[in-house]
Amino acid sequence: MARKKELKLYRNIGIIAHIDAGKTTTTERVLYYTGKKHQIIEVHDTKDGKSSTTTDYLEQERQRGITIQSAAVSAEWKGYQINIIDTPGHVDFTIEVNRSLRVLDGAVVVFDGVAGVEPQTETNWRLANQYNVPRLCYVNKMDRIGANFAHCVKGIKERLGANALLCHVPFGSSDEFVGMADLVAGCGYIWDSDDKDAEWETIPLDQIPGRFKFATTRDNDWIARIPELRQELLEHALAQDEDAFLEFVESGKFDPAQLKQCIRKGAISGALVPLLCGSSFKHKGVQQMLDAVVDYLPYPGENGGISIVDLNGTVIGTQEVRDDAPARALAFKVINDQFGTLTFVRVYSGVIKKGDTLLNVTRDRKERIGRIVEVHAADAEDVEEARAGDICAFVSMKETETGDSLSSPEKPALLERMRFPDPVISVAVEPKARADVDKLSTALYKMVKADPSLRLEVDQETGQTLLRGMGELHLEVTIDRMRTELGVEATMGRPRVSFREAFGSTVERVYTHKKQSGGSGQFAEVKMIFEPLGGGSGIEFSDEVVGGRIPREFIPAVEKAIMSECKRGQVAGYEVVDFRARLLDGKYHDVDSSTLAFEIAGRACFREAHKASGPKLLEPIMRIEVVSEAEYLGGIIGDIARRRGQISDQGQKGPQVYVQGFVPLSEMFGYINFLRSTTSGRGTFQMEFDHYADVPAGLVEKLMEKEA
Ligand SMILES: Nc1nc2c(ncn2[C@@H]2O[C@H](COP(=O)(O)OP(=O)(O)OP(=O)(O)O)[C@@H](O)[C@H]2O)c(=O)[nH]1
Ligand SMILES: [Mg+2]
Fold first, then answer.
1. Between the CA of residue 249 and those of 184, 254, 331, what are the distances in Å?
2. How far is the CA of 22 from the centre of ligand 1 (A)?
């Protein structure tokens, strides 16, 4: 079977933004204007549980009016197939943005026209930088009272560091917003109403000034600046092509098709970020945004292929996006729903057919592809094959997990891995009914498998099952989804901070394990050095034994002992991280030495060394941003200091002020109550994990008491 549609006619894009910017609302409009859907559902009308937007179909999403998991939809626009992933904006669900960006070719970053750049937009922007994803900015909600285009543009340039290319200029703001000037096409669009089927009138640039007299100077100034901004756009964009630029400077002439090519080139390389405006809710600017997706965002592979890495993660090559190449795909999401296990993949090269066998290169396991489906939010449609550039799902895979590489067995290749955030909060989870213990652990296992930002652990002391995640909402939603999707009810304890431990200094230790009891004895001796490493560097084990002083077969036992013993540190039983364990030397006995004896020696050596190193307790430090009225600033800053926080930045944000800083998570529980009472309910805040830092020595005991 030949390709149904040329690769150049595809766009795989994500919609990313801070919470509530209007991503889902925009996606609903896209589905309506592309003819996929005949009715628009509003996010705030789904609480009754009777209706749902296409992408927010989970019960938890409808009730809360927020997106929790990313959902894919596809639509046709002017002959192009546009696959869209609507992502959540809440910080607890960052993993969904992370994995979507990893496999998408472009992104539309949505802004609330009043709030401008918000903390989660910054986080998502950084993620898009990391994965090298070209993007467009769409300043939404221009119809809201207080919408301020200038403030948004400034934030995009200054806080995100984007080389924004102003393609649109709004006509008015709040209830006067009626359309925009299109500086690329050189015309203006004016809608005749807020209705979803309203038509727009296209007028030439020179007629625009005569049409409007807005209530604010700010809005009128934008109209007055249109000729100057058009000139700026032309120069800025044509600079992407030296010849076109020179011709323009000399003669003032340019080819409109070439202008678009220039913007496309700049957008794909990341040199330019086209900036548009609109109001999805009031049905203005969505079609223009779709045109820009087609015009300026890349087709699969246009921005280069995918990196191939070796076992250490070092890049050793690139795979171009082509059908006539070995099959290569990346699994980026696993969900359990009414269809069974669905493994979402992005196919980078080759053609994968129903019935094919692929190699899971990450796990060195063969997987047969029984069924392939194209997923449209809550629905799935069977297809015969998946090709380079496609995003689809394989049904009932057994071995494959998020982040795994799938490849043709003849030409295996490992694709660049995904990076996952560290969970920082944990809760103890118990079944509601005693008899459900086994059901609960199966259900938890399924949830954790589907969400790499969750971890499951058993508290060694209390025997409790601990679920770790990104935040309180994340854990609550997980427990609730277990009830609605898997029918298992559980209760959750109080959320607790995920502390960690580290070595305080480098320690060398010899440990001899010797036991003589009746028959055969046990003997093993290890000499090891433990060195603390910098934050986030993980755990390394190096075998430096020479001359067979410990036989080869016993060395893995020592490594295993360290890797498992480090789960429980000596300060308060938290995981020990960021160290190198070097096995230097040892002794063995022909008869009495065994794997078990070496494991025991390894464990004891670790414990003693950790204790002797002056071990440290580490705590998660959160990056926070508080936004409120200026009059409360003093109170907010003073309180951050009392919570052992540090201010990193503060300034004006539209009519409000913002304060950014770093505060230990253990001091942040219940912060919302403080903020509400201090600011009469007008302040808001956002926080996300930033790094782990040492707990000051004098505080360890106090913190541990609080935890207990
Ligand atoms: N006034 C106005 N309101 C809008 C606009 N777009 C979205 N909204 C409203 O803003 C609220 C949030 O919209 P959503 O589309 O759910 O926002 P989101 O970005 O998907 O939010 P999360 O998925 O939770 O991050 C809803 O009540 C929308 O009706 C707009 O253009 N103008
Ligand atoms: Mg949403």
1. 17, 10, 49
2. 3
Which ligand sits closest to the CA of 21?
1
Task: Give per-residue pLDDT as tens, 632-677.
Answer: 999 999 999 999 999 999 988 777 889 999 999 989 887 888 888 8
pLDDT at 339: 67
Residue 356 CA to ligand 1 centre (angstroms) = 42
- What gap in Å lies between CA 17 and CA 163, rounded to an integer? 18
> Ligand 1: which atom is nearest the Cα of residue 144?
1
pLDDT for the residue numbered 586: 96
The tokens for 589 are 């006995």
Which residues are CB-neighbours of 158 under 8 A, at least 6 positions away?
A: none
Centre of ligand 1 to C-alpha 65, Å, is 9
Residue nearest to atom 14 of ligand 1 (CA): 22
**Do the Cβ atoms of 107 and 135 come closer than 8 Å?**
yes
Beta-carbon contacts of 291 under 8 Å, excluding residues fewer than 6 positions away, are 77, 78
DSSP label of 148: -
pLDDT score of 91 more than 70: yes
Structure tokens at 516: 């003589």
Q: Which of 143-157, 492-506, 601-615 has the lowest mean pLDDT?
A: 492-506
CA-nearest residue, atom 32 of ligand 1: 141
Write the secondary structure of 354-369 as one string of H (helix), E (strand) and C (coil).
CCCEEEECCCCEEEEC
Q: What is the DSSP string of 35-100?
A: TS-S----GGG-TTSS---SS--SHHHHHHTS--S-EEEEEEETTEEEEEEE---SGGGHHHHHHH
**Residue minimizing CA distance to atom 6 of ligand 1:** 22
Q: Which of 25, 69, 73 maximizes ligand 1 atoms within 8 Å of its Cβ, making it the mutation to test the pocket?
A: 25
Q: Is the pLDDT of residue 323 over 80?
A: yes
Kind and range of the H or E run holding 395: strand 391-395
What separation in Å is there between the alpha carbon of 663 and the centre of ligand 1? 29
Checking if the pLDDT of 708 tops 80, the result is no
Q: Which ligand is the nearest neighbour of the Cα of 43?
A: 1
How, if at all, do strands 10-16 and 71-77 pair? Answer: unpaired
Q: Is it the case that residue 222 has pLDDT exceeding 80?
A: yes
Strands 385-387 and 351-353: antiparallel
Q: What is the Å distance from ligand 2's center to 283 Cα?
A: 17
How far apart CA 307 and CA 465 sit, in angstroms, is 38
From 445, 452, 446, select the one nearest 419 (Cα to Cα).
Answer: 452
- Contact 518/503 with Cβ under 8 angstroms? no
The CA distance from 509 to 609, in Å, is: 6
Encode pLDDT of 11-65 as tens digits. 999 999 999 999 999 999 999 999 887 888 888 888 777 778 888 888 888 888 8
Helices 226-238 & 256-269, crossing angle to 10 degrees? 70
Q: Ligand 1: which residues within 6 Å by Cβ?
A: 17, 19-25, 42-44, 66-67, 88-90, 140-141, 143-144, 279-281
